[in-house]
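Feature request, filed as a ticket because there's no other form

It would be nice if the structure record came with a short human-readable summary line next to the tokens. Right now we just get the raw output. Example of a typical job, pasted below so the devs can see what we mean:
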Amino acid sequence: MKYLTIISFIFILLFSCSPTDSDIGDPLERVRMVLRTVDSDTAQWERGTDAYPSETNDIQIMWYSHPGGKELKKFKIYRSEVPDGSRKYNKIAEINIVNDQNQDTLFIDTGLELQKSYYYYVVAENQDGLSSDPSDTVWYALIEKPQLIAPRDGARITTDSITFEWTFPGYEPNYYILRIEKYWDESYHPVVSVSMIQSKYEGQMQVILSEKWISDAVSSEIYRWRVDAVGSNPLHEGSESGWYRFTIDN
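Raw output as currently delivered:
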């Protein structure tokens, strides 16, 4: 009887110390990734997993703001060069959440290799150290960047038409996207012109624009342009040149 009493006491003690749902907390919602769409490159604001416009080989990934609120602590970004198996993914970055009302939901992975697929997922973590399940996996592969020629960076345009020129160092893509924005600052740069241009497969491209925004431009307004190369899989392969700025003096 004595031993039965001791066993019963131990059982009650263990049961009372077992974690409950309230101890662990409700499971965190998974992070929802912003998916790239067929019109991402021509939209006013580019969204989703994509090449990033810079002088180096970079990929951006993007996700939606998480509903975790003030309890949310950080996002953890994982990357792999193979699509399957969580053991092959390595954590490459953490983004701490300073303002839960204005979460940083963009990550730029820099200095990557060309012609290689990179796979990503994101995990949210709260103040108690509880992590969400991994987000859906997104992926992208970079190809060579178009090399901008004219108008050169800092050029001043004095005509009602502008000639844009660039070269491509590798095997040319099927088409390019010429994107021009009016530049106010890094946070505001609305699109004024987007053109999808079929490749001529000659290594060098030239496009002449005579559009209304050029003739209507106010003197000394700043614009910027870049060229995207679209890969054989438009949603997952491509590149973006860096930006060149120019002014129009009418």
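Something like this underneath would help us a lot:
The chain has two domains: 25-142, 147-248.
The domain at 147-248 is CATH 2.60.40.10 (Immunoglobulin-like).
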